[in-house]
Every structure is written in structure tokens, then in C-alpha cells.
Amino acid sequence: MALAELYTQYNRVWIPDREEVWRSAEITKDYKAGDHLLHVQLEDGNELDYPVDPVVLPPLRNPDILVGENDLTALSYLHEPAVLHNLKVRFVESKLIYTYSGIILVAMNPYKQLPIYGDAIIHAYSGQNMGDMDPHIFAVAEEAYKQMARNNKNQSIIVSGESGAGKTVSARYTMRYFATVSKSSSNAHVEDKVLASNPITEAVGNAKTTRNDNSSRFGKYTEISFDQSYQIIGANMRTYLLEKSRVVFQVGKIKF
Hints:
Blueprint: E1 12-17, E2 21-27, E3 37-42, E4 47-51, H1 80-93, E5 98-101, E6 104-107, H2 119-125, H3 137-151, H4 167-181, H5 190-195, H6 202-205, E7 218-226, E8 232-241
Antiparallel strand pairs: 1-2, 2-3, 3-4, 5-6, 7-8
Helix pairs in contact: 3-4
């Protein structure tokens, strides 16, 4: 099927917008290959002759039945406006902060405490396959824990995001999950003990950003050790200074 054949009357597209980033619009007249205008109607009722590049046409909008999917890979069209709109619908309308994109978990920071991290939720995800239940950080942690126990191989979870995205909190909940499901004797705040091991350099390495008053300038590698019964026996955190320009001179030697 030619690309132009998809841009027929009543189909919907995403139009770039300075304020809203993307706006939904319905095509009011069939598009012909080579045309430089796309006749559309915005959701507020205004009609627009939108100039287009015949080679790069505006992204198509997914059918309403797919909006709000818990896995982005289930969308017919997977592009920036589709991803942003799906995350917005789940976060604003359904109050859900987690969404899958295949084996990747996308998290929206609600900037408030949510009642979805208690022991009852941990036990609900324990033993479940990833995808059997709603997307959750506990589902990712369970998959890693299960693969470690089943295959007897080290597992890694990468937590990434911009400043203030909630990376430290996500790491905390992951460690809490491991401590609870492994029935470790030290499961009472094991995540607090690990996170409290940050070096004193954190005091001069942090910085204020537009979204986080205490943004870490460090990359962190946390290694959690388990015994043969898969119970936590220790943890180690390594830090990597990401912005060495902040170290302007040596003030002395620090011994630990």
C-alpha cells in the first residue's frame, strides 16, 4: 500500500503545535500523492490547510480502541506523538504511572506517594510472569529475581531518566522487592542501608536543576549479593562522577 493511500478522509493525524507539542486533526479531504497541502479539521472545529512535505507526511493517529494500551508495542503506529498520548491517557485518565514498551518499563513520576508499593502488592507480583499483571516496577524486579534463581546467572536492571524522573525511588522499590520476596533477615529497610552508603562527595557533586533541587551528578552501580538460598547477604554501591568539571581543586584526603 502506498503511503498516500493511508491519508484518506476521516483518518486522523498528529500536527506539530508550539504550545501542546502535538495536536490531533482529522483529514477532511483525500490526500493525493505529491500534494503540498493536507486538509484537516482540528478537535476544536477549526479547519486548516496544513503544508506538508510529500516525502514526510504527518504521523497517523492510532484507533481509539488502542489508546491506553499497557504495552506501547501493541500500538499500530509507534512514534513520538503516539507514545506521548498513550502515556498521557494512562496517567491523567486512568491514574496509572507504569507502561510497558516490550521488556522496557516506562514510569511517569507523580511527585507524590502512591499506595501501590506495600507488602500485599509485592506478594501479588511474586511468582508472576512479566505481562500477566499490570505494568509495575515489581514485575521487572520479579523477572530479574526469577531469572537469577532459575538460570543461576547474574541479572542487571538499568534505571535511566532525566533529572527528577524518579530513578533513585525506582531503585529503592526494586531493592525493597528483593528483600521482601527473598525473606532476608535484614529486609527491614535494606534499601535504606544501601542508599545511605553514598560517599561524602555527593555533598559537593549534587546540583540544582529546574526539576530537582538536589539532582545527583553521579552514576550509581548497585550490586546486591544473594546466597545459595537466594537471600540477600550484602550489597555494594559504586559511584561515578559524571561531571568532573565540578571538582575545581583538591581540598584534602578523605579516608573511609
